[in-house]
Structure formats: structure tokens, C-alpha cells
Amino acid sequence: MSIGDMLAATVPMARTLNLEFLETSPDRAVVSLPDQDAYHNHVGGPHAGAMFTLGESASGAIVLAAFGDQLARAVPLAVRAEIAYKKLAMGAVTATATLGRPAADVVAELDAGQRPEFPVAIEIRRADGAVTGEMTVVWTLRPNG
């Protein structure tokens, strides 16, 4: 099962919004939100909440790709998030997530008995390539037990 399939199966909101997981690797995750009338705002573009969910889902996909081998000993949890809406988003939008710290550094902190935190940067773009939103989600790996 791919990471996208796993997220769609375990995160009902990703299914609800019909998110499409286009790429999931430890280096980058790309997730698309199709243009859907049911999730439009008052000006006919994707609702801010749908775009937030898109960005958070992209961040979760890269976290699972980068740290999936740590799931037996730690649970990834979002700690906080910030989003900036830059330009009007119309039509389908795509979020691209990248890790803000090397995965090896995060795992080294976990190995040292710490609860590491790390940022994931997300850009949300519309079909013409314009950046419509920028988001940062800070994640932690909470050790089990």
C-alpha cells in the first residue's frame, strides 16, 4: 500500500476532499486538491480550510515517507502550523512539502532519547504555477511508552 493510499484509508478528511497523492518520497511530497464546488469559498476558489487540509496532508505524507521506519518506536504528531494565503486560488491546487531538517538529524535526537521537533515547508500552487499559499507544519516524533 502506498503512503497516499494509507493516508486516504486512515485519514477520513483526505478521502472527503478527494486528495490525490501524486508523489511521496522522503525528499518531497506532492498532493493535489481537485476543483470541487462543494469545497469552494465565497469567491469560487478552494476554501481556506480545504487548502489547510491539503497542506497538512502533504506534510503528513513526507513525514511518513521520511520516518515510516520509526513508527514502531514513535508516533508522528503535528505540533503547530502556520499558513499564509498569498494569492487567490482558483481551480485545482497542488501542495509540495519538503522537510526543514535532515531526517538523520531528527532520528539522531530520537536515538538520544529526545522528542525531536522539525518543520515541514509547504507551497500551494494553482495550475498556472503561481504560489497561492505558504505553510509550515512543525511535527514531532513522540516516543512510544
TrEMBL record:
Database matches in InterPro entries: DUF4442, HotDog_dom_sf
CDD domains recorded: PaaI_thioesterase
UniProt-recorded name of the protein: DUF4442 domain-containing protein
